[in-house]
Amino acid sequence: MPAVRAVLVVLLAALAIAPATAAAASYVNPVVDGDLPDPTVLRDGDGFWAVTTSKDWLPAFPLLFSRDLVHWERVGAVLDDPPAWARRAFWAPEIARWGGVVRVYFAAARFGGPPCIGVATARTPAGPYRSRGIVHCPTRGAIDPYPVTDEAGQRWLVYKGFGARRGIWLRRLTEDGLRTFGPATWLLEPAEPWEEATTEGANLVRHDGRWYLLYSGGHCCSPPCTYAVGVARADAITGPYVRAVAPSLISSEALKCPGHGTLVGDGRGGDWYLHHGYPVADERNVRRRILLTPVSWSPDGWPVFGADGTVPVAGPGPPEDAAALPGGGAGFTEDFAGSRLGPAWEWPVRAKPHVAVGGGELRLRAPAAPDRRRLVARQVAAASFTARAVVRPGSCNAGLAVVGFDDVATGIEVTDSRLRVWRGRRTARMIAGTPRGAGGGAVAEEAIELTATVTDGRTVTFAAGGRPVGPPVPTGQRGDALRVALTCTGPRGAQATFGQLRVVA
């Protein structure tokens, strides 16, 4: 309890201080809530474009836009479909523009081997993007790519390699950026105790004639996390690199385990590090939020993160050239008024749904296998929330579900004769059920409101027509953000219709 009170005091103090600065030039971390790990950022034209890890969800690599690095709007994704070579686990993207081409490098698990690095290209950061195949795939695999151009105009790819000499490596890129060539140069391997045998998430930048390698070390994800950011520097891009012995960015009293980010200039002479981390109150490390830390440079040429090497809770933000985008909260309402799903909707890899949107409805079709579900989902940036969906059952079993770790879902669905609560991943087992219309006809035949109430990310309670169905059920949450999903199960071609979906945090 003392630790919790301390965190609350820090947060309240930050919120009290923030309005004291100009409203357009202040911010509070996290700048983006939700589970959006490994953010990369590109300043292009009058705004900033960020791309993040999507893991086993499609569309791959969420794309966000901001005019000031503080207010972000999710505007799309890089890839609607997985590349032919990639099996799952889409992570650690990096976005860069070379001339008239924007490139997003990324890592993914491939069929029959270790992870590799691929690339997608577009004419503008907004896309559309086209997958251009595998860029680099050593025998033991590679992840965490970062493209960089040296002072002579040569292109390079920085990445994390595996094997006897694990750590961070560098290799030349072809002029079009689609393939690596030549020998690989080793830059840095774990050496300091705080790194805990890990050096990854590299960001290589040039400042005042030197090269600075920002990297992450420690344990990033499941509790207790120890992630932090280190810096090494060299006179030449190929090294040798001399590291600062202590980490340069560590946890603060309110925000912990910072890492895997990108240094970006704001166009006005200021530098910022956009990265991920957790609030201290997130004891189970459920959601890696997007954080923003200012960077200055010391007289001896080392980057200084924040005021004291810790993640700031609040402070003056970057100057703005235009009005800020409206910020989004954890809750949302989806009326399906447009002609397509919005950019925040997702689905599991290799399970692309058949959907039609319009006229205030979403129509979802079942897959070929009668015991498999199709679903569309949205992430919820809150541990406790209530989701309500209006369901008009058709020829498939239609429902509302909460999806947690490893795509394990718990949901309620409407069958011909029953309301049932189920749990599973690809297949499901029934947990509870009740006849439709039980309770004096409280459940209407034409439209049914299904409700899922999640408490502290751990349990979910379902209701239909305002009446509980079954007992509270564990969500299966262990290390991922929860998603709310609309589901359909039935014979091939079976369809259900959904009206409004509303989530209140």
Number of helices: 1
Beta-strand portion reads over 45%
Strand order of the largest sheet: 4-25-28-37-30-31-32-33
End-to-end Cα distance, whole Å, is 24 Å
Tell me the overall shape.
globular
Instruction: Tell me the major beta sheet.
Output: 8 strands, antiparallel
The number of distinct structural domains comes to 2
Oligomer: single chain
| CATH fold naming of the largest domain | Tachylectin-2, Chain A
Low-confidence stretches: 1-24, 321-328, 439-444
What class, by secondary structure content? mainly beta
Helicity, in percent? Answer: under 10%
Which radius of gyration do the C-alpha atoms yield? 24 Å
Q: Any chance you could write out the topology, listing elements then pairs?
A:
Elements: H1 2-17, E1 26-28, E2 40-44, E3 47-51, E4 57-58, E5 60-66, E6 72-79, E7 86-98, E8 101-110, E9 113-122, E10 130-136, E11 142-149, E12 155-161, E13 167-173, E14 180-188, E15 200-207, E16 210-217, E17 228-234, E18 242-243, E19 255-265, E20 271-279, E21 289-297, E22 303-305, E23 314-316, E24 332-334, E25 345-348, E26 354-358, E27 361-365, E28 373-379, E29 385-392, E30 397-403, E31 409-414, E32 418-424, E33 428-435, E34 448-455, E35 459-464, E36 467-474, E37 483-489, E38 495-504
